[in-house]
Design brief:
4 helices; elongated; mainly alpha; single chain
């Protein structure tokens, strides 16, 4: 109920959801993809990293955080250095 009152006090109105309003937002985005070879290398790295984490690292949560952080950051760096 307080949210409704705040909306009235601030005179906020929602815009209707229409394709015409969404298309300009989507037109600004660029599609960036990794190659199949990059995908398989990242997948293999993730599997080996998690195997190492669960087998050798005492703090498994920290190991998973580091390993998955690298896996998530790697595609972005691959795209930065991609020649295409």
């Amino acid at each position: 109920m307080e949210t409704r009152l705040a909306r009235l006090d601030l005179d906020l109105r929602t815009a209707p959801f229409t394709p015409e309003r969404i298309r300009p937002l989507l037109a600004k985005t660029t599609v960036r993809e990794i190659t199949g070879a990059q995908f398989w290398v990242l997948l293999l790295f993730a599997l080996f990293a998690l195997t190492f984490v669960f087998g050798a690292i005492p703090d498994r949560w920290m190991g998973m955080t580091v390993a998955m952080g690298i896996v998530l950051a790697a595609p972005r760096s691959c795209l930065l250095f991609d020649a295409a």
